[in-house]
Amino acid sequence: MNRKMKLSELFKGQSDIEVKSLMSDSRIQSEDAIFFAIKGSSFDGNKYIPSAVKNGAKVIVTSEVSEHPIEGITYVHSDDVTGELNRTADLFYDRPSGKLKMFGVTGTNGKSSITSIIQDVYGHFEPTGYIGTIGIRYGKKELPEKLTTPDINDLHWILNDMVREGMKACAMEVSSIGIEQRRVDMIDFDAAVFTNLTHDHLDYHKTMENYFLAKKKLFDRLKKEGTAVTNADDPYGMRIVSDCRGKIRTYGIEHDADYRAENVVLNNSSTSFTLKVEGKKYPVQTNLVAMFNVYNLMAAIAVIHEAGIKMEDILPYLKHIKQVSGRMEKVDEGQDYHVIVDYAHTPDGFEKLEAYATAITEKGKNIIAVLGSAGKRDSSKRSELGEILDRFCSYAVLTEEDPRNEDPSKIAEDIRQNMHHTKTEIIPDRIQAIEKGISLAHTGDTVLILGKGDEEFMDRDDRRDPYEGDQVIASRAVRKRKI
Hints:
The chain is an alpha/beta fold. It contains 15 helices and 25 strands. The strands form 5 sheets. Strands 10-9-8-11-7-12-13-14-15-16-17 form an 11-stranded mixed sheet, with helices on both faces. The chain has a 6-stranded mixed sheet with strand order 18-19-23-20-21-22, sandwiched between helices. Strands 3-4-5-6 form a 4-stranded parallel sheet.
């Protein structure tokens, strides 16, 4: 995609030199670029101006006054460089979010599932893209994910390309860190969804209140014409929309809500319930399983219905929703025991899996877990994960999960420090750990492989190593065992 604008069109009072790209990472080669020298908490973009110039920058936006300006380079001064990057990216890429129906989903758990359901179901009515943890998908394009919420320049480029590819809508995961780092400041959201708020990312936010306030910004900024869809059963559900200017819609089971599920029937491979909306009752049948997916499905239904699609038109598409890779994904190689791969990595996610695994596992049979916890991230949740496993697992194989520069065995010890009933074993190599967990299973047992899902990388030290994904490794291990 070849974009170009005059600098004077982007910054008043500047010259008419031609700009062909925007740059916030000085290491990436770009042609005739504007480099935004952003100051972060642990870095200063001004230090990388020479590198940016070497890689194609001819305009520098900075909050500093350079004592030794580079000859031939134009400097634009601003007290808010991040704000200028947001404004400029929106303008440079022709205000793409305003041309799409934007659905933003935030919360601790459920973001990937809800956005994927929206893309799948709403996509039957209008071409819909997806941006999130699983990757970036629109039309026939699939791009790998870098961050749950892409950085400012990448995000606007992606949305612009979605418009060019004929998309009319986009379902997007919005992380609390992405909000705090102002990556979505200029995104014109038509709907914002809140799933839940539980222990996670406290290494970054420090407190649950800070974590909540970061997510709340998405709803505080929602336009008057927008719709906020929030979980009435979550303790933070109503508080998060307290200052929202848009229309507020709720979903839930335990409390009265605009979209309320009743008579929920959970099975191994399907779920049914009655959905009450605006005084009417609708029978819902879906291939999704587990109670938490009832909440995810209701959130997606509410968004789609509020976007103007009739309930009667939505219901048929709920019966066969596309499997979200690595999310409650069943590994079926004809074995006589359950193997489930899930991205769960938070205490709340583990508790929800406890309910499902206990429900599908016959009394007297074993639940086996294979898991780790991320290195250089919120370490305070590790023992809590172990305590939850200790309630319902017979055996836990503790292993690596993006250890970064921490010792996986040390992380495993943190997890099991308060485990007193579940048998544990530490196997640092994740592939070997998955094979071990599956080797322990007998008829009717359940093996839960948690934390990575379909991610095709493993973060170790200062590098990102290739990884096949838990579902691929688990499938191979089951087949190997049958030989």
